[in-house]
Amino acid sequence: MTMTFPLMERDFKVVILALSDCKSVFEGLGSIVEVGGGTGTVAQIISEAFPHLKYTMLDLPYVVANLTGRENLNYVGGDMFQAIPPSDAVLMKHLDDS
Ligand SMILES: C[S@@+](CC[C@H](N)C(=O)[O-])C[C@H]1O[C@@H](n2cnc3c(N)ncnc32)[C@H](O)[C@@H]1O
Q1: Which atom of ligand 1 lies nearest, measured to the CA of 34?
Q2: I want to staple 31 with a disulfide (CB 3.0 to 4.6 A). Which of 9, 54, 76, 81 is the partner?
Q3: Which domains does the chain have, with CATH numbers?
């Protein structure tokens, strides 16, 4: 429980920034891949806010195994050091576990 709140708080701050100050960045894209998205919180909020955007979230296979996507949100299991799905932009946030 003590680990969950700080992660959710960071996600919340990034999403607020994305949906306010940086909205035009997402409006100009057709596709985006988020690398190491973890629980998919950011992926869900941004993909819902920008339904035109083809959103792919890449994380290790066991992390995405039980995540369910929707029309414009696709979860992909893989290793970013092996391959990253092609897209107009790549989003990375806090990939260091330390
Ligand atoms: C500290 S978590 C951060 C999750 C999310 N980006 C956030 O900011 O809350 C790091 C994430 O990177 C993922 N990750 C680590 N190594 C990876 C790799 N080689 N390929 C893809 N994802 C990786 C982990 O599975 C984990 O979900």
Answers
A1: 6
A2: 54
A3: 4-92 (3.40.50.150)
Dist CA 23 CA 16 (whole Å): 10
One-letter-per-residue 3-state SS of the chain: CCCHHHHHHHHHHHHHHHHCCCHHHHHCCCEEEEECCCCCHHHHHHHHHCCCCEEEEEECHHHHCCCCCECCEEEEECCCCCCCCCCCEEEECCCCCC
- Count CB-CB contacts under 10 A for residue 44: 19
How many Å apart are CA 54 and CA 50, to the nearest integer? 9
Average pLDDT (28-48) is: 92
Put simply, whether the predicted model's pTM sits higher than 0.85 gets the answer yes
> Rounded to 5 degrees, what are φ and ψ at 55?
-105, 125
**Ligand 1 close to Cβ of residue 65 (< 6 A):** no
pLDDT value at residue 81: 97
